[in-house]
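Async update (no meeting this week)

Hi team, since we skipped the sync, here's where things stand on the single-chain job. The sequence we agreed to prioritize is pasted below, unchanged from the tracker. I ran it this morning and attached the output directly underneath so nobody has to dig for it. Comments welcome in thread, and please keep replies under the output.
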Amino acid sequence: MQVSIEVAKKYKEDVQIGDFLPLEVDPNTFGRIAAQTFKQVLQQKFREAELRKLHDQFSEMVGEVMSGIVTRREEGNVLLQVNRHEVVLPKREQVGTDDYRPQERLRVLVLKIEEDRRGFQVVASRSHPNLIRKLLEQEVPEISEGVVEIIAIAREPGQRSKIAVTSHDERVDGVGACVGQRGSRIQILMDELRPEKIDVVPFSEDPKTFIINALSPAKVNTIRLNEEEKSAYVTVPDNQLSLAIGRGGQNVRLAARLTEWKIDIRSEEQANQEKAAAQAQGEAN
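Output:
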């Protein structure tokens, strides 16, 4: 509504043209349509205020872990209920080994907030490596306190992960702190990410030592580095070759991603055969 400046000054002397002037109105003077309109507008304002509050809460949670309950599937996406709001777990962020049963409680990593026609959409992930990082921070006090630091994570979601950690206190074993007494802490993570296997290895500034640690549980005989190509030639006992490579090359692949070195593995027998062949080639030349 609009009123003239003369009328407005009867209610507020210093009012200016263009100002808003609140006036008390008797609701009994409203007609039926006006009352319905007021009710609809009020409800809409409440919904908008609630959405803004939820948006602010979720914005603060981006990059963090939150717990939600699976409600349903929709076009390949999994929908979870978190704090009275629906969170989307896109197919690309899901783990193939999860079955996402309705009413199942899961912990997810909040990836981002996307604006949509309904207000906003929260996008989460179960496959991101930082999910493991944040879960460890929650379960291992030494990490949240800064005594133990996670240096790197290599993950194949739903199958296996390798985590490199270091301790900034010589009295604290970084690996032991993450694994926990009798494996209690790491077991909580594996239960959450079932059936994903998690290896925790000590980080080292020395590339040779770090690569050897990363190839655990396989034993390494010798290792030769090519600094220019950032590659490593590793020999292992004959009976350790399959363990070092892992099923489908998984162990060596994760070790390479964890250390950021290309790793070439040979058994003792293979290394000796290659050496003999190279010698024979040299003599022939």
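Quick observations from my side:
The mean pLDDT is 91.
The two ends are 100 Å apart (CA to CA).
Reply here if anything looks off.
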